Amino acid sequence: QEAINRKKSSSESFKTAAHRSEMGPPPLKMEELGRRAPQWVRDNLVTMCMRCKEPFNALTRRRHHCRACGYVVCARCSDYRAELQYDRSRLNRVCQECYVFLTGHVVLEDREEKHKGILEKEASEISGRSLLCSSLQLLDKSSKGGTRGWFVIPRDDPLVLYIYAAPQDVRAHTSIPLLGYQVRDVPQGHSRHVFQLAQSRQVLTFAADTEELKRRWMRAMARSAAGITQPEEDEDADS
């Protein structure tokens, strides 16, 4: 029993560390901007600019890091320079938001402000107050291939599943209203952990990394599909 307890404790510690790694470094507090070097958000966690939300591509929209907050931003959103105390007050590339905060200068916006809807909420922000979030694979009709993404059921919108391309993205590319769906188990053996959402003629097939994660998603989706909005008592550790 002691060996089992040690194995379980080690497994939970590994899952927590892996989850934190996927979520990326915590953001600096506003009063720390420019005074302390930030931890950079890893490039592979982001598919679009964390400020303007435009997708990156290899030719016209490259990735840059703001030296004040560590966000991954495009050239347009990082075309500013500000003195940073942690770098001996030398001028560094920063994003527009950090530039305004550090210098007090007002930047005239040349594009219309868009209303920030639920699809534009940051994945890291919404994951931090979710009923359940993790990486899953949405399989195609053949169930042989599919798209991997970051899946979230938020606490403030518990009847909808949001799909992000990466954990640090600032806009979900797809949302699926879960109300009315049926959750089906699809036994696949030890190599694959597959389950489905079915409604009328529409069937969505998902693959989880572990059997435990599959069961957690099936339970969470079933509750949302039934219209249950209150979190389970033991779900605090899942958020």
TrEMBL record:
A molecular function GO annotation: guanyl-nucleotide exchange factor activity
Biological process, per Gene Ontology: cytoskeleton organization; filopodium assembly
Keywords: Cytoplasm, Cytoskeleton, Guanine-nucleotide releasing factor, Metal-binding, Phosphoprotein, Repeat, Zinc, Zinc-finger
Broad class of the protein's primary localization: cytoplasm
Localization in the cell: Cytoplasm, Cytoskeleton
Listed GO CC annotations: cytoplasm; cytoskeleton
Residue intervals of the FYVE-type domain: 43-103
Pfam name, any one: PH
Gene3D superfamilies attached to this UniProt entry: Pleckstrin-homology domain (PH domain)/Phosphotyrosine-binding domain (PTB) (2.30.29.30), Zinc/RING finger domain, C3HC4 (zinc finger) (3.30.40.10)
UniProt domain PH: residue ranges: 112-226
Superkingdom classification of source: Eukaryota
UniProt xrefs under InterPro entries: FYVE_RhoGEF_PH, PH-like_dom_sf, PH_domain, Znf_FYVE, Znf_FYVE-rel, Znf_FYVE_PHD, Znf_RING/FYVE/PHD
PANTHER family for this protein: FACIOGENITAL DYSPLASIA PROTEIN (PTHR12673), FYVE, RHOGEF AND PH DOMAIN-CONTAINING PROTEIN 2 (PTHR12673:SF82)
Protein's name in the database: FGD2 protein
Source organism of this protein record: Nothocercus julius
